[in-house]
Design goal:
Largest sheet: 4 strands, antiparallel
Strand order of the largest sheet: 8-9-7-10
Shape: elongated
Helix content: 55-70%
Distance between the termini: 53 Å
Number of domains: 3
Length: 687
């Protein structure tokens, strides 16, 4: 009950801030907010168009702008106030105004402009009023549609999961993992609610907790319940089957949950409060799910497991025939399997070298709607889309705004620069309009050029705006992210060495995970950034860039979630090898017992991400499709083909853990076993 109440309260306490404390762009934005009481990014851009055959009258524009200025908390720059013809289209029939206020489409200034303050003033002078701007365009093509709620998306994901679970268990036992997932999700929301009392938490956390929590909790439950069913099929009493399942599959769940949580530490250590909150929320998902699976699930199985396992159409008496046959084929043709899988991943990785970091361009945010039409009208009149991303150079009291205006206008790629009226505390904004949007690596050179041209002039404080934030992210996050990646990989490696009692298996697992994540980035770049299929499937043209926060979130979640399947498969292979001493048997039995499980778990997570992709925001679609594609790629090419092929090739060296390392990690050592040759099955000494 407490979890259900907290889930309803969390949404109202989340934020969308992505500031970077200590970086010039973010610090300048905060100073602008203190001085002017407005955001550094344009709130809304009204476009005024004169009647057919007439041109824009400066006095009429001034009348409209003055009406908007009466809105509390607004700042307006326009042709009427500045006299700068850069605010006019080439034919002189249209003009745009830069209105600063809050942020997002719910900003009261933007709402007032769209309502009486803007439209009534435009009607009085006989001009047509249209509105555009990044916040309006970011609503996408579905701006008029009702955005799916977290609850509805979760129910869609749960429905897909139920179909998979019914196929796996063919009994009412399919409802048990859903029950565990519901408890885990609501418990996580309860902890997140506590987190919001002393830290800002990103709005994305609610989607991550609900949908990724659904998939993770079901996956973990699926592993334990399947093993419990297997032991009961072998004749164990119910209580004994529960103990064995928790001691074997539960150990894999614990190792997996800790590994996923550690991978999300990559988000926690970044100097971005919003992304850090995603890391905290993300870490809670596997940890809470693990806790619920290892406590509540055994109790449910002990009390009601045999009664809900009805009708028992499918049993777990033997490994899957299909997956066992597949494993034998991979063992027999291990070189071919490994080569094909590595080649496929390599091809997928190639586009990643062209990945751009920034924000999606205007054309990918909306291809129809009023905001798109207003921007098109400006473009047709010779005004570039750079009006969506103006830079703001803040000048301290006693500085020289005019010298900064003159210097900025000399920078190639700048359309115009105008000084705003001074703020009450004496600071002055100089707004610089680039010709093109400054949203990614290829277009922010003009931001650097403006910064270089003005930073030595009297009164310079800093440059703010979208382009400046992209530069902040490059400096604070991406230039140093490889340090975080190395630390996460090393910690994961140590944990897996202890779990698998092996040196080679964890090394292979970490390297393959990094390789598969790179492949997902390549596919995402090819699909979304380059636009190869995004418009056909989602109606979204090429984005031109990956939103700066998306790649780090994809890496953290995908690295951990992909490792789930590695742990599931290799943990069972290790168990079978300890039992038989044969690598071939370990591969065949391990994949035969976990192949259907991993495939089902991947499908469940895929349905959850498919539900998340139904949201109209392009950024969220990119995140959801990348995670969904990564899960499927990992469960098929990597875990079903490459992993068994490599384990078969490495033979007895898979299981080697020298005594000194084992003593250090406080586990049992695993010396290399020397065995004979089985022709046509295993190489010499595969063990």
């Amino acid at each position: 009950m407490a979890g259900g109440i907290s889930a309803g309260q969390v949404a109202d306490r989340l934020t969308g801030d992505t500031a970077l404390p200590g970086q010039e762009g973010s610090e300048t934005e905060q100073r602008i907010a203190r001085s002017y009481g407005v955001a550094a990014d344009v709130s809304v851009i009204p476009v005024l168009t004169a009647p057919e055959g007439a041109t824009i009258d400066r006095a009429a524009v001034t009348a409209v702008a003055d009406q908007i200025r009466r809105v509390p908390g607004s700042l307006v720059l326009d042709y009427g106030g500045t006299g700068d013809r850069a605010f006019l289209t080439g034919d002189g029939r249209s003009t745009f105004l830069l209105v600063y206020g809050g942020s997002g489409p719910d900003d009261p200034v933007a709402q007032a402009v769209a309502g009486g303050a803007g439209r009534s003033a435009a009607d009085q002078v006989g001009y047509r009023l249209q509105l555009t701007g990044d916040s309006l365009l970011s609503e996408g093509n579905a701006a008029a549609a009702e955005e799916p709620s977290v609850l509805s998306e979760t129910l869609i994901g749960a429905a897909g999961a139920l179909v998979v679970l019914l196929f796996v268990f063919a009994s009412f036992l399919a409802l048990v993992p859903l029950l565990i997932a519901a408890v885990a999700i609501l418990s996580t929301f309860l902890v997140v609610l506590v987190l919001t009392t002393f830290a800002d938490v990103s709005f994305m956390v609610q989607f991550l907790v609900a949908l990724i929590g659904l998939g993770v909790a079901i996956d973990y439950s699926l592993l334990v319940v399947t093993r419990w069913r297997e032991e009961r099929s072998r004749g164990a009493a119910n209580s004994e089957a529960v103990v064995i399942a928790v001691g074997t599959a539960g150990r894999a769940v614990f190792a997996s949950g800790v590994t996923v949580a550690i991978s999300l530490a990559a988000l926690v250590v970044l100097p971005v409060p919003a992304v850090r909150s995603m890391g905290y929320g993300g870490m809670l998902i596997p940890l809470v799910s693990t806790l619920v699976v290892l406590t509540l699930l055994p109790a449910v199985l002990s009390l009601a497991g045999p009664r809900v396992d009805w009708p028992r159409i499918r049993t777990e008496t033997r490994a899957s025939r299909g997956w066992s046959a597949w494993a034998r084929a991979v063992i027999r043709h291990r070189w071919v399997a490994a080569t094909v899988a590595l080649a496929a991943l390599t091809v997928a990785v190639v586009p990643v070298f062209g990945m751009q970091i920034g924000q999606p361009g205007a054309d990918s945010l909306a291809t129809k709607g009023a905001a798109h039409e207003a921007l098109t009208a400006l473009r047709d009149g010779g005004v570039g889309s750079g009006v969506l991303t103006p830079m703001v150079v803040l000048v301290r009291p006693g500085g020289d705004p005019k010298s900064i205006v003159d210097a900025a206008e000399q920078v190639p790629g700048v359309r115009a620069a105008v000084a705003a009226p001074a703020a009450p505390d004496g600071h002055t904004e100089v707004v610089v309009l680039p010709e093109r949007e400054t949203k990614n690596n290829t277009s922010i050179a003009v931001v650097t050029a403006v910064r270089d041209a003005t930073k030595s002039l009297p009164g310079y404080v800093g440059v703010a705006g979208v382009g400046a934030i992209v530069l902040d992210w490059q400096n604070a996050v991406y230039d140093n992210f490889w340090y975080v990646l190395v630390v996460i990989a090393l910690v994961t490696f140590v944990l897996l060495v202890r779990s698998f009692r092996s040196i080679l298996l964890p090394l292979k697992a970490v390297l393959l995970n990094l390789f598969s994540v790179a492949a997902v980035f390549g596919l995402t770049t090819w699909f979304w950034q380059d636009g190869n299929g995004s418009e056909a499937l989602f109606g979204v043209p090429a984005t031109g860039a990956m939103t700066f926060w998306v790649p780090v979130v994809i890496f953290a979640f995908l690295f951990g979630l992909s490792m789930d399947y590695e742990v599931f498969i290799l943990h069972r292979m290790r168990e079978e090898y300890d039992r038989t001493g044969s690598t071939s048997v370990a591969v065949k039995e391990g994949l035969g017992r976990t192949g259907r499980l991993v495939t089902s778990a991947a499908l469940i997570l895929f349905f959850a991400f498919a539900a998340l992709a139904s949201t109209p925001q392009t950024d969220v679609k990119v995140l959801a499709t990348a995670l969904g594609a990564g899960i499927l790629l990992d469960a098929t090419i990597v875990r079903a083909l490459l992993v068994p092929a490599l384990v078969s090739l490495f033979g007895r060296w898979n299981w080697w853990l020298p005594a000194p390392v084992a003593r250090l990690l406080r586990v049992e050592p695993s010396p290399v076993r020397v065995v004979g040759v089985t022709k046509g099955r295993e190489p010499v000494g595969v063990g």
